[in-house]
Amino acid sequence: MRGPGVTVAAYAVDESTAGGRRIPEPPPTHRSEFQRDRDRVIHSSAFRRLVYKTQVFVNHEGDLYRTRLTHSLEVAQIARTVAGALSLNEYLVEAICLAHDLGHTPFGHAGQDALNACMRDHGGFEHNLQSLRVVDELEEKYADFAGLNLMYETREGILKHCSARHARGLGELGRRFLEGRQPALEAQLANLADEVAYNSHDVDDGLRAGLLLVEELREVAIFRRAYDEVRHRYQDLQGRRLIYEIVRRLIGYMVDDLVEVSSRRLLEAAPRSVEDVRSAGRPLIAFSQPMAEQHRELKRFLMHHLYRNPRVLAMTNKAWATLTALFEAYQSDVRLMPPGFCLAAEDAARKHGESARLRVVTDYIAGMTDRYAILEHERLFPACRPD
Questions:
Q1: Residue % of the chain over a pLDDT of 70
Q2: pTM score over 0.90
Q3: Residue 152's beta-bridge partner residues?
Q4: Domains of the chain listed by start with CATH number
């Protein structure tokens, strides 16, 4: 029920009954197991690289736009607030949120789509699975094991989505996708905190970039509610302060709803253990139906006005072309990659065949930052270098 500095409810994950690590280790002395997970994520190379990976806008387009790193920090802050209100394990929630995007490609979802197309005949590419691959295999820090050797519940939370085909290869971790079971509450919360963060903060970045207009956003119910509330209280407020007051209310509405509805569901279901949560038949962390619809309305607006904006689509098309060209170059000659990846690709081919060789190529590209991918493309294709 307790870890250093935290008390959790019976339905929350308690490290004394948690699933443990793939490779047993002595327990930490001055921190909980999930604090150790959080710290390992923060000290990982993949986490540091997130500062130069796209959220919506490519990093070099402006210093004040969000990156995958700042997004992950914001998700963790929102999730910890809700976790505290619901007596969940805050350290576990934080570890999941900080790790959830470690497998993201350069150039955001455009990069993921490009690599998925390149790997279509070899298992595809999905960033949640790649995040798990990063923490299980790709990070190289410890003498006794590959990856970060995180706790089962942290790894479970990282894996938000998974096809049945991939789930069958993940053993116990993939079982819930095959049997229709739920993850722990902390994993459910991290998933929704991610949505709260990226929707509200994409509004902020879209307004900053001039791709969204306040007048158009007022068509969206939740934005209109926040705008009207701010205008009623601060009639003369303008500029960035106006936008910030609106965005903080967007987050507040969603968080308040999430806490209220989740508290009610937990009271109704009365789970007495994590196993009760897993077998509940539906998520116990959830928005109300009206809030879920308002959330979807905002997402539809952002899809039409921001993600499909010609400026963003131009970046998307360039990103697709850049990563596809890199993949084809490395596929043709793995010696173009650094020696470590070249040797790993050749070894994978000998032991497991072509799909394994190309998975190493994908690992290399997925780990790149935006600017490194651009520089690498210019190195390999100097004729495409801008004047």
A1: 95
A2: yes
A3: none
A4: 2-311 (1.10.3210.10), 312-381 (no CATH)
